[in-house]
Amino acid sequence: MKSIYKYITAIALTGAAGLAADAAPKTAPKGGKSMEEIEQMIRRGALAEAAEALDSAAAAQPKNAMIDYMRGKCLVARNDDAGATAAFENAHRKGSNDALLELAEIAIREYRVDDAESHIDDYKAYIIKNKRKKLTDESGKISSQLTRTRSMLERVEKIMVFDSITVDKDAFLDAYRLSAEAGSLNYPDILPEGVEYSDPTVVYRTEDGREMLWGALNDDCAFTLRSINRLADNSWEQPQIVGDGLGQDGDANYPFLMPDGVTLYFASDNEESLGGLDIFISRNNGTEFLQPQNIGMPYNSPYDDYMLAIDELTGVGFWASDRNRLGDKVTIYMFIPSQSRVNVNPDDPTLARRASLRSIRDTWPDNADFSNIRKALDSVKDNERKRSRQFELSLPDGRVLTRYAQFTSQHAADMMSQYVSLLKATDEARERLDALRVRYGSGDTSVGPEIITMEDDIVQAEAQLKRVANDVIRAEMGGNVK
């Protein structure tokens, strides 16, 4: 995922390149820190210390553009774009033309594309005027990012985001509530023993439990999507790479396969992303996955957006985003998917707000009523991904199984499902029997014969539960049970 390291390391690469030779002090102000020392503070994340040192440097050399430029870098790393804008504007007024590129980047992040274009044009004009200078690779990247942002702003999808919550990044899956028909999102420990994966990733498991997809690093240290299928004998095949270059020279991670088995959503930070991870879609033509497409705004932003999942049963979709820059937390958006894409009018005055999801209420129609969709969502029972105990089964080898996904034998898992259903019916019968006994104790002797019948039925059910449990254990242990 994207890190503030992107910003603070840029100081060493481009920070002083466009400044006049005398812009940066060659020595530290008396009793203060040198620019090199302050740069090191920022690079190691000592932002408060760097800010204090910059204040001291500015007091000693108020006309030095480099001080304001580095102050802007420090504020960007602290997620203070408003303060950074003021600092870069001061740096530009004092002679730093590199500050124009920083101002352009901030404007792009805020979807002020006209302002960004103006800053880039001013920077290019400076380069043309100063024949000793050349356009940097960074300026080309920012121009490309502006082009992508402007293009996506022309096709912002009109969706209804009915809710959002903030959760810890390490436990963001707990906010997803999917019906069994949609499959499940799991932590990597669900994978068969010995299967490689790389953190961070999420394992998508199909409804029938016979296919799983996840992300793992390749030899080039880039995430690629992997899949594994359960064979007819209930063993697992060797993991396969999904698609050929779905990441397009970037990471590919956080997969979700629609129940049609054709439509695949995943996240990538390739050159077609707005910045960080973006959500992409690819479809399988029966032979291979086709060229992925960026699904655009408002799903994607200049920050990390990932793990899109759609539950067709409830009509609810989810995705995660750190666009709100909340440190170790992430925002989960819940939206209502549509069958066909309808875009916001590019001339709509709320376009930028809707694209950035500054307020999810901007996506609501008048008199919006989401009560039915909330009821559908509330009706979804905890999925196995949530690690709630679906049962408890102790095995002779010391394992204690609590979820179907932990079985190595599909036959054993199927029988365990029968056991759980029988146990539920038996528990309900016990409750019914207790109620009948209360009635009998209150003088209603007419229920006596029914009580006797239910007592016999429960005894037989308990014996059957014991037999089924033993069958489950034998199937899971491969018959190696004494």
C-alpha termini separation: 51 Å
What is the count of distinct domains? Answer: 3
Average pLDDT confidence is 86
The helix/strand series, from N terminus to C terminus, equals HHHHHHHHEEEEEEEEEEEEEHHEEHH
In DSSP terms (H or I, runs of 4 or more residues), the helix count works out at: 12
Oligomer: single chain
Order of strands in the sheet with most strands: 2-3-4-5-6
Per DSSP, what share of the residues sits in E-state strands of 2 or more residues?
Answer: 15-25%
Low-confidence stretches: 1-28, 382-387
Q: Say how many strands there are.
A: 15
Radius of gyration: 30 Å
Structural class: alpha+beta
Strand and helix map with partners:
Blueprint: H1 5-15, H2 35-43, H3 47-60, H4 65-77, H5 81-93, H6 98-109, H7 113-129, H8 137-153, E1 160-168, E2 184-186, E3 203-205, E4 211-217, E5 223-229, E6 240-241, E7 252-257, E8 263-268, E9 278-283, E10 293-294, E11 305-311, E12 316-326, E13 329-336, H9 351-356, H10 371-378, E14 393-394, E15 400-401, H11 410-441, H12 448-476
Antiparallel strand pairs: 1-13, 2-3, 3-4, 4-5, 5-6, 7-8, 8-9, 9-10, 11-12, 12-13, 14-15
What does this structure look like?
The protein is of the alpha+beta class and 482 residues long. It is 38% helix and 17% strand. The protein has a five-stranded antiparallel beta sheet, with no helix packed on it. Strands 1-13-12-11 form a four-stranded antiparallel beta sheet, with no helix packed on it. Helix 2 packs parallel to helix 4, helix 7 runs antiparallel to helix 8 and helix 11 (410-441) runs antiparallel to helix 12. It is elongated, with a radius of gyration of 30 Å.
